[in-house]
Amino acid sequence: MIVLKNNEFIERNKATIDMEDRGHQFGDGVYEVVRVYDGEVFLMQDHLDRLQYSLDEVEIKYDVKEQNLSSLLEQLIKKNKVHDGGIYLQITRGVAPRNHPYPKNAKPMLFAYPLELSRPLQAQANGIKTILQKDFRWLRCDIKSLNLLGNVMTKQKANNANAGEAIFYRDDNHVTEGSSTNVFIIKNGKLYTHPADNYILNGITRRYILFLAHKLNIPYKEKVFGLTELKEADEVFMTSTSAEVTPVVEVEGDKIANGQPGPISQQLLEAFFQYNHVEQLT
Ligand code: PLP
């Protein structure tokens, strides 16, 4: 495997991280996961814009455009002959003696490498079970930060319950998102998802689904909904770069409608590949 370290391509076994890298010690860094279909990054510019947003919010001085990151990622894909899969990339604040405040002279450290991702066809055909989890994460979920302990603990809880995902809620009237996905509900033909604010990550797939809903004339609204609306929805589905659109057929033991993936989720999943040559969402 060839790994991108800053702007150099190196072998996997040379891709080591310093003990005092702040990403390693503080989770002081941000990341992206992009999907590669047919050798091309899907919605590259949207991912790079979100990466720049996360970098700016935490004041890591790395300019995605100046560093020509999109071209570096294209080279990484070619060097690794990625046809269908993904790329993980992270940028940390760099290496400095351990101390909480931002160090003056640390240089941002980028690593990127291919991920094996295959389409979740079975989960998409059958739908998945989910559990609920009180959202105990911080209040800047809009930043795609390396600090994923709350998400990791929650995904493990879902695994232990033989569920495919856990859905977070701040209180009974406020469902936020999944542990690594955004959540949508459909009621009476209308699509609802949480507004893009500090309580959720503004998923690129979430935004793509809103774009598809617009194209397909499916009415939609970005609005907070609660646990009752979730459980009484006609359809529920989750979205992410790796899950694409995956229907949810059960929430904490309660079946959604008849317990089968619903028609609008299906329609959106089919449309997913009709429009996937769109260059950019914004
Ligand atoms: N929400 C969280 C907490 C995530 O970790 C992710 C993806 O990793 C998403 C939502 C979906 O984002 P995207 O569609 O950009 O993959």
From TrEMBL:
Reactions listed under catalytic activity: D-alanine + 2-oxoglutarate = D-glutamate + pyruvate
Highest taxon in the source lineage: Bacteria
Keywords: Aminotransferase, Coiled coil, Pyridoxal phosphate, Transferase
EC number: 2.6.1.21
InterPro entries assigned: Aminotrans_IV, Aminotrans_IV_CS, Aminotransferase-like, BCAT-like_C, BCAT-like_N, Class-IV_PLP-Dep_Aminotrnsfr, D_amino_transT
Coiled-coil regions listed: 48-75
Pfam families linked: Aminotran_4
UniProt keyword Transferase, yes or no: yes
Obligatory cofactor(s): pyridoxal 5'-phosphate
Subunit text: Homodimer.
Function: Acts on the D-isomers of alanine, leucine, aspartate, glutamate, aminobutyrate, norvaline and asparagine. The enzyme transfers an amino group from a substrate D-amino acid to the pyridoxal phosphate cofactor to form pyridoxamine and an alpha-keto acid in the first half-reaction.
UniProt record similarity statement: Belongs to the class-IV pyridoxal-phosphate-dependent aminotransferase family.
Identification of the protein by name: D-alanine aminotransferase
Organism lineage string: Bacteria, Bacillati, Bacillota, Bacilli, Bacillales
